[in-house]
Automatic annotation (TrEMBL):
Residue ranges occupied by any Reverse transcriptase N-terminal domain in the UniProt entry: 9-53
Alphabetized UniProt keyword annotations: Nucleotidyltransferase, RNA-directed DNA polymerase, Transferase
Protein name (Swiss-Prot/TrEMBL): RNA-directed DNA polymerase
Record-linked InterPro entries: DNA/RNA_pol_sf (IPR043502), GrpII_Intron_Splice-Mob/Def (IPR051083), RT_dom (IPR000477), RVT_N (IPR025960)
Domain Reverse transcriptase span(s) in chain numbering: 68-190
An MF annotation (GO) of this entry: RNA-directed DNA polymerase activity
Species, as recorded: Candidatus Magnetoglobus multicellularis str. Araruama
One Pfam family this sequence matches: RVT_1
Similarity comment: Belongs to the bacterial reverse transcriptase family.
Statement: the UniProt record of this protein carries the keyword Nucleotidyltransferase: yes
Keyword Protein biosynthesis (UniProt): no
TM stretches of this protein: none
Length: 220
């Protein structure tokens, strides 16, 4: 729950923008620039950033695509947003988080503030330790989850301004100096993934399980 002081600060646009500029310049990605190569270093650059965070006329830059080595020798694509892109998403994340928490599955623990592996383990124990508990546990992985999420589904189901959401989702990415359009998926380097992935993932999982097991009663 947001404290009274926090609510008071966030009602003022200027202070609200300061909060989110501080957030993106304090996290672990603060030294990783987007496609424009810009990092908000120093008081002057941060103050200019605060003044630049306006919704009117905002157009996000495409993301910078790099590849991260995986243990199996393959490479995983990572799309890095600009500092302004991150700050603008953070502005919307606070308002959307409250909605996401009230509609999210109570047994979802990934990408949820205040939840972690220990909570998931405890819930699994509670669910499976009873005499009439389920006898089977399905472990599954959604291949390329972030890379294949439907853009239209997100536009139709994430409850924020559709224009600004579409700008983020369809900003495209730059790889080797060439700009490519966004056709599906969402960047793993983006802040909004934490909000839209859990409900989408559960929907896909439940539909797939029911199809495989002929509409049997299942829970997730």
């Amino acid at each position: 729950m947001i404290s009274l002081l926090s609510r008071t600060i966030l009602r003022d646009q200027f202070y609200k923008h300061q909060v989110y500029v501080k957030r993106v310049t304090s996290n672990k990605g603060k030294k990783t620039p987007g496609v424009d190569g810009v990092l908000w270093k120093g008081a002057r650059a941060k103050m200019q950033a605060v003044k630049s965070l306006r919704r009117h006329g905002y157009k996000p830059l495409p993301l910078r695509r790099i590849y991260i080595p995986k243990k199996n020798g393959k490479k995983r694509p990572l799309s890095i947003p600009s500092m302004k892109y991150r700050a603008m998403q953070a502005l919307y994340k606070l308002a959307l988080s409250a909605v996401a928490e009230t509609t999210a599955d109570p047994n979802s623990y990934g990408f949820r503030e205040g939840r972690g592996c220990a909570d998931a383990i405890a819930q699994a124990f509670n669910a499976l330790s009873k005499p009439n508990s389920a006898t089977w546990v399905l472990e599954a992985d959604i291949k390329g989850c972030f890379d294949n999420i439907s853009l239209k589904w997100m536009e139709d189901n994430i409850p924020i301004d559709r224009k600004i959401l579409s700008k983020w989702l369809r900003a495209g990415y730059v790889e080797n100096g060439i700009t490519y359009p966004s056709k599906k998926g969402t960047p793993q380097g983006g802040l909004c993934k934490a909000l839209h992935n859990p409900p989408y993932a559960k929907k896909v999982i439940m539909q797939s399980i029911r199809k495989i097991y002929n509409n049997s009663k299942v829970s997730c």
